[in-house]
Amino acid sequence: MTQTADRTMESRVGRNKQRYGSQGERLVAGVVPLSTDKTKVLVIQSTRRGGWVLPKGGWETDESTAAEAACREAWEEAGAICRVEYDLGQIAEMRPSEQLTPQAPKALYQFFQCIVDKEEPQWPEMHKRARMWMSHAEATQALANRPELLEALNRSQIIR
């Protein structure tokens, strides 16, 4: 699946179209965006915690699949045009309950391995986020405090 949705320079905000699971968990779609040779992963700066994360965000009710939502997030957050290779499966929230807040509730993540076909020079969140290519070893260190993101990376075919 290649990202085919119209790309806009506006990021979606708010949770009025957010999908939720049967136990009230927020459904989040994300990508492990790999280089064509699978030696690097594209990571982005977190706007809340600092540090580096994988592109991810809410799967919204007007998106027919989680893969569609994941590709939209790759565009909005990293300016990456991606092609989904395969589904990495669901990953349950791993944060301790004391870190959960109304702004950051419990989530169920659905990640997809993608190949980055193109990086656009301008993208919706370019003024809020930097992006960087990292090796598996570099990304493992950068994502160490986000076990759900590290799990997605480790499920991918990135060359170690």
Q: Can you give a write-up of this model?
A:
- It is a single chain.
- This protein has 160 residues and is an alpha+beta fold.
- The chain contains 3 helices and 7 strands, in the order ββββαβββαα.
- A hairpin with a 6-residue loop joins strand 2 and strand 3.
Task: Give a quick rundown of the structure.
This protein is α+β, with helices and mostly antiparallel strands. 18% of the residues lie in helices and 31% in strands.
Question: Which short descriptors sum up this protein?
Answer:
single chain, 160 residues, alpha+beta, four-stranded mixed β-sheet, 3 helices, 7 strands, 18% helix, globular, disordered N terminus
Show the helix and strand layout.
Blueprint: E1 26-34, E2 41-45, E3 52-53, E4 56-58, H1 66-78, E5 80-92, E6 107-119, E7 131-134, H2 136-142, H3 147-155
Parallel strand pairs: 1-6
Antiparallel strand pairs: 1-4, 2-3, 2-7, 5-6
